[in-house]
């Protein structure tokens, strides 16, 4: 029997990006300049039209001075994240 993980909460991930950007008072242009990503990409992520790559989220975490594990941890919002491996 295969056990599949719960679906990632992509809505919470994009909302977290929006919250972090707003908390800093940054426009899309400001975050684009700080992350090296295009304004268009940021809008599409926040509006849920694309998810972006791991490299995209890495750039965003650095631009926002937010640990990537904290940012990506929102993917598990609403369900239990996987347990750490046991020795």
Morphology: elongated
Helix-and-strand structural type: mainly alpha
Order of helices and strands: HHHHH
Contiguous uncertain segments of 5+ residues: none
Mean pLDDT reading: 91
Largest sheet: none
- Number of helices, counting only DSSP H or I runs of 4 residues or more: 5
Helical proportion, percent range: 40-55%
Strand content: under 5%
Number of extended strands: 0
Distance between the termini: 25 Å
Gyration radius from CA atoms, angstroms: 14 Å
Kindly describe this structure.
- The protein has helices at 10-23, 28-35, 39-46, 54-63, 68-72.
- The model has no long low-confidence stretch (mean pLDDT 91).
- The chain is elongated.
- The chain is an all-alpha fold.
Chain-wise SSE layout:
Elements: H1 10-23, H2 28-35, H3 39-46, H4 54-63, H5 68-72
Helix pairs in contact: 2-3
Provide a short characterization of the protein structure:
With 87 residues, the protein is mainly α.
Describe this protein with a few key phrases.
single chain; elongated; mainly alpha; 0% strand; 87 residues
């Amino acid at each position: 029997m295969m056990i599949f993980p719960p679906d990632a909460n992509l809505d919470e991930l994009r909302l977290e990006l929006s919250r972090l950007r707003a908390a800093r008072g940054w426009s899309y242009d400001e975050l684009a300049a700080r992350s090296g990503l295009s304004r268009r990409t940021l809008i599409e992520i926040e509006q849920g039209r694309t998810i972006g790559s791991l490299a995209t989220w890495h750039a965003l975490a650095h631009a926002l001075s937010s640990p990537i594990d904290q940012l990506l941890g929102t993917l598990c919002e609403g369900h239990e994240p996987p347990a750490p491996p046991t020795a």
